[in-house]
Structure formats: C-alpha cells, structure tokens
Design a protein that fits this description.
The protein is mostly helical. Helices cover 73% and strands 0% of the residues. It has helices at residues 2-16, 22-25, 38-41, 49-70, 72-97, 107-120, 125-141, 148-171.
Length: 172
C-alpha cells in the first residue's frame, strides 16, 4: 500500500534528519538560489512529533481512499505532482511575501488529496473547505507559525487536478 509507504517514509525521515539541516532541505528563499531539491525535500520534513502525527493521520485517511480509487500509479502521480505544484506556488508566496519562511511538512501534498477528494465527493466539499480553513487559521490565531497558504494552494491544486482527470476520462 503506497499510502503506508509514504507514512513510513515520513516517519523515518523525521527520526533520521537532524533539525540543523532543515534550512537546507525546507522550502525557503534559497530555492531561488539553486536549491531546487527543496520543492520535494520539504514535503518530508516536519516541525515536531505533533506536526508529523497529525499529517500522517490525515494522509492515511484520504490517501487510503484515493489510492483504492485511483490505483497506485495515479495516486503517486497526484500526490507528487500536486505536492510539487503546491510547493512551487508556496515558493512564489515566500519570494514575494515572506522571505524569512522555511516551509516544511507534507500538509501541501495532503491538502492536494483533500482537494481531489472534495472534487470527487461534492457532498463533502464544503466540510473539507471548512477543515482546511480551520487547520490553516486556528493555529495562527493561537500564535503557531503555520504555512496557511500551502494548505490552500494544495486544496486548489488537488481540485484542479481532479477536474483535469475527469475531463480526460470524458474525452476517452
């Protein structure tokens, strides 16, 4: 199961990666100076055990469903293409609005899955949007530094990718 592999990979990377190198592998202004791997590597770093656990719970919840629906190959494609698109949009945000950020976490890629699911199950769309807004802005109101824009970019990317896939299926 790909979802379990991604969870395992995130957990292993969390425990073997020293926090001192997060500046090199998190998504930050250095991306624009040639550290292009940050687009992908930032998706596997987490700020703490709580951050990791919460992300992995949501990855399991939506990943398990979408992996069965899409199949392993398409699921991986959506997760990584969506996560990379989300990271690219977040890099643009960092460049123009907050160059001091070091963005880490699988949240963007996970929100891609949530956006994809919201497109497939229109009854759940409003609930998922509310969940994304809550998990993006409640921590900010509590003083927790969170990349709210990464969640929103991820949701939008997932929704658009699902729309593209549904249009592609209709054309076949």
């Amino acid at each position: 199961m790909i979802t379990l592999f991604l969870i395992f990979l995130n957990i292993i990377i969390y425990f073997i990666t020293p926090y001192s190198i997060y500046g090199l592998f998190g998504l930050n202004i250095l991306f624009f100076k040639g550290n292009y791997w940050q687009i992908l590597s930032s998706m596997f770093l987490h700020a703490g055990l709580t951050h990791l656990i919460l992300n992995m719970i949501v990855l399991f919840q939506f990943g398990s469903i979408l992996e069965k629906y899409l199949g392993k190959v398409y699921f991986l494609l959506i997760y990584f293409v969506g996560g990379i698109l989300c990271s690219l949009l977040s890099a643009v945000y960092i460049y123009f609005f907050d160059s001091s950020v070091n963005l880490i976490g699988a949240s963007g890629a996970i929100c891609v899955l949530m956006g994809y699911f919201a497109f497939l199950d229109r009854k759940s769309t409003l609930g998922i949007i509310i969940a994304i807004l809550l998990m993006s802005f409640i921590p900010l109101m509590m003083g927790v530094n969170i990349a709210w824009y990464g969640h929103i970019f991820g949701f939008i990317c997932g929704f658009i990718l699902a729309k593209i896939m549904s249009m592609k299926k209709r054309c076949l």
